[in-house]
Structures are given as structure tokens and as C-alpha cells.
Amino acid sequence: MNRLFSHFEEGFLNLLITSMTLLVFIEVIARFFFNTGFLWIQELTLTICAWFVLFGMSYGVKVGAHIGVDAFVTKLPKGGRKLAGLIATTICLIYCIMFLKGSWDYLLKMYEVGIPMEDLNLPSLLIQNLDPDFAWDTLRIDIEEPAVPLWLSQSILILGFGLLFLRFSELFIAIATNKADGFTLADEAEDSMHLADTVKEALGLDQDKQDKPLNPNNKDEK
């Protein structure tokens, strides 16, 4: 089950970033080559970007992609690292709870008022099959102006912070049961040095190929 959900996370994030890239590409082509644009593309791109960030932050905790400062924590003994990890995850859980409460209140207000998005409308085929009373009473969709309801597009606030809460809960349990010392953080310096070494090796190999003289006795090198 965990593996299946992990594949879903990766696939969904790939879908979001690919969709956002294609939308931006289309908008750039339309503006620079056809002197036009699409307002709905801008709004949809911003919405997808928000979904990508808020959905991806929990995945970042899972794979250790977030950046943090652990220079002090790494100097502590094992018991100290465990205590620091428990305190940090507790603070993060409180942070998630606060945002979940605020997000719920905000989305509930958007739902009650029925505020729609400005330029992003639902497909006409979907609207034609909706009962007007059900559309407004349940979904807060106005059939005459079928814009995507704001509460629906921003529901990632609840989903994103809910997943982040679960990730931090798993990390808290792992630290408490001595299965982990603390957060797994990305090391930009190490990644940069690794990238630099890779580029240097590639350039070195290319230079060797350029500097290697041809052997006139070898027909294969002519």
C-alpha cells in the first residue's frame, strides 16, 4: 500500500510539473509569436503551481529533499539528537495543526459565500449534466456562470498540510522508536560538489578525445 501511494505521489507530481511547463510554453508562444494570450492559462498555471508546492512538501519530508541547518545538532550525542528531533517534529506538528485550522476556516468561508475563480470555467459538457439546485447547494457552482469554485481549487491547503502532518507524525514515531535520529536533509554543498565533479569528468573526457592524435597506421581512426 505504501509503495502504491509512493508511485501515486511521484506520478501526480510529475503530472503537475509537466502540465505547468506545457501551459507556460503555450502562453509564451501565444504572446511572442501571435501577440495574444489566455487569462485562464495564467490562473490555471498559478493553481497548478500551488498544488505542486503544497502537495510536494510532504513528499520532500519523505525523501529528505528539504534544506535545513544541522551544524549544531550533528555535534550532539545520540540522546541529544533524539531529543532535538522530537522537539523539532513536535513544533512542525503544531505548525501543521495551526495551518489546518486556518485553512479549514478559510475554505469554509469561501464555500459558504460561493466565491468563484476569475477566469477559469468548468467544461460545458460537465455543466450541462448538472442539476442547477445541486450544483449551487452542494458544489457552489453557478450554472449561468460556471466558474470553478475557489474552495475546490484551493482545497490543496487541507490536503497538503494533512499529508505533511502525517509525514511528521511518521517521523516523530520513527525518532521515538530509535528508527531515525532526526530529519533527513538535503545537502546543497555536497550535491553541488558532486555535480561539479561530474561536469569536470565529462569535460575531461571530451578534452581527452580532442587531444588524442590520430594514428595513421590504424584505419579505424582515420
Explain what you see.
The chain is built from eight helices and two strands. The chain has 222 residues and is mainly alpha-helical. The protein has one domain. The chain has a two-stranded antiparallel ribbon with strand order 1-2. Helix 2 runs parallel beside helix 7 and helix 3 runs antiparallel to helix 7. The N and C termini lie far apart (58 Å).
Write the layout of secondary structure elements.
Blueprint: H1 2-34, H2 39-63, H3 78-113, E1 116-121, H4 124-128, H5 132-139, E2 147-149, H6 150-153, H7 156-176, H8 188-211
Antiparallel strand pairs: 1-2
Major sheet: 2 strands, antiparallel
Coarse morphology = flat
Number of domains: 1
Calculate the terminal CA-CA distance, rounded to whole Å: 58 Å
Give the C-alpha Rg: 25 Å
Q: How much strand content do the residues show?
A: under 5%
Overall mean pLDDT: 84
Structural class: mainly alpha
Alpha plus pi helix count? 8
Q: What is the helix content? A: over 70%
Order of helices and strands: HHHEHHEHHH
Number of strands: 2
Strand order of the largest sheet: 1-2
